[in-house]
Amino acid sequence: MTTTTASPLAALDQLAPRIEQTRAANATQRRLPDELAREMAEAGLFALLVPRALGGLELDPLSAADVVEAASRIDGSAGWAVMIGTQSAWFAAFLPPPVAERVIGRPAATLAGVLRPGGRAVPVDGGYRVSGRWGFASGCTYADHLYGTCLVEQADGQRELRLVYVPSADATILDTWRSVGLRATGSHDFTVRDVAVGEEWTLPMPVLGDAPHDGPLYRDGYQNLAFVLQAAQALGVARGSLVAFTELAEGTVRWLSGAPLRDRPMVQIAVARAEAKVASARAWLREAVAEVWDTILAGDPPDPRQRIRVRLAITHGISTAVGVADVLQRVAGAAAVPEDHPLQRGFQDLRTAAAHVQAAPSIFEMAGGLLLGADVPPSVLL
User: Fold this and answer.
1) Residue 213 φ then ψ, to 5°
2) Rounded to whole angstroms, how far apart are CA atoms 376 and 353?
3) Biggest CA-to-CA distance, the chain
4) Residue 4: what are its φ and ψ, rounded to 5°?
């Protein structure tokens, strides 16, 4: 693999026709085909933030965001798969090198899981006995390994959260994913029952401290470097919706007025505002991330102001993308009602993406509180 953005973007261009051709079938099956997922993995699309020492690309966050954004313009579910695969691999980079090598150290490695606590880990000699159920594990149908956060109760009464990794063969996938958006992400539940997991196959949650790899991506466990991709996915879908609306407006005539859709002032205003919103949210996201990245490259940790700006820019980017899709869907009218229309897909995909914790309205509340000098949970700054 190379360490430039050109290689995954070129691979994405080659895969785009297949993604588009199989889109309807993928949505019906509620997952990406194993063969397509494997080709995406082999092309490095899930290894954007994997350390070079493990054979990955180790891109900077904005270059990785470019790839996720481009994939999401093609198809929201494919972009979500790239995003989740990349984020998952970033967390796995903090595992001890021999374990990380097994989990993400192969070109075709695939990983999926859930950070939200859903299981219980009982301490035993050398590790834990793990049982639990985790929901919305995007990509779990083709993943080699799965992970989930567990509550650990120590003998002395202390409690902690640990992220636990298991081979997918040790888990059971439950057929639970039926949604109106992001339908091909295979975001099913999975269960693990009384599985022995070695200590070295777990991580504390939140992941704090440096990963056992050189490189600025892995300093201090600054997880928002990976969650930047959440906003990139949403903005990519919104950009794809803008392109689809432009094509629709060129060939649609309103029967009441006889005027082409593109010539109506209200439509022109809506498109101009949508363009400004998407471009502005993207620019601010990149500005906030670039400032943090320069600080990290200089050897310093981002300060609280920088961290909250990145967190706010992520949530603002998702929120903006959702609003743009809503407007375009409404202005398009009945022409965009069919479920397979690009505007309808974008609208539903973004509405589903907005249910993710990274888009939660409470983040605006916490960010505003910090900006006003109030006390906020430390987790906002991770």
Assistant:
1) -140, 145
2) 25
3) 77
4) -115, 165
For residue 90, what are its two tokens? 């970033």
For 103, 127, 177, 233, the CA distances from 119, given in Å and listed in that order, are 20, 15, 20, 28
Q: What is the pTM of this model?
A: 0.95
Which residues 6+ apart lie within 8 Å of 264 measured at CB? 254, 257
9-31 pLDDT, tens per residue? 999 999 999 999 999 999 999 99
Q: How far apart are the C-alpha atoms of 293 and 164, rounded to whole Å?
A: 29
For residue 271 the two structure tokens come to 């498109």
Count of Cβ atoms closer than 10 Å to residue 192 Cβ? 22
Q: Please give the domain boundaries of the chain with CATH numbers for all domains.
A: 6-104 (1.10.540.10), 113-204 (2.40.110.10), 222-374 (1.20.140.10)
Per DSSP, the residues of 148-214 read EEEEEE-TTS-EEEEEEEEEGGGSEEE-----SSSGGG--EEEEEEEEEEEGGGEEESS--S--SS-
Kindly list the distances between the CA atom of residue 176 and the CA atoms of 140, 172, 188, in Å, as whole numbers in the listed order.
12, 12, 5
If you search the block for the tokens 């590790």, which residue do you land on? Answer: 127
DSSP string, 6-72: HHHHHHHHHHHHHHHHTHHHHHHHTS--HHHHHHHHHTTTT-TTS-GGGT-----HHHHHHHHHHHH
CA distance 127 to 121: 9
Q: Residue 131 carries which DSSP code?
A: E
Look-up of token digits 């056992």: 212
Cα–Cα distance between 249 and 177 in angstroms, integer? Answer: 34
Taking only the tens place, the pLDDT of each residue in 247-261 is: 999 887 766 666 788
Which residues does 30 contact at the CB level (< 8 Å), separation at least 6?
A: 177, 178, 179, 183, 184, 185, 186
Q: Coil, strand or helix: which one is 132?
A: strand
Question: How far is residue 44's CA from residue 94's CA, in Å, rounded to a whole number?
Answer: 19
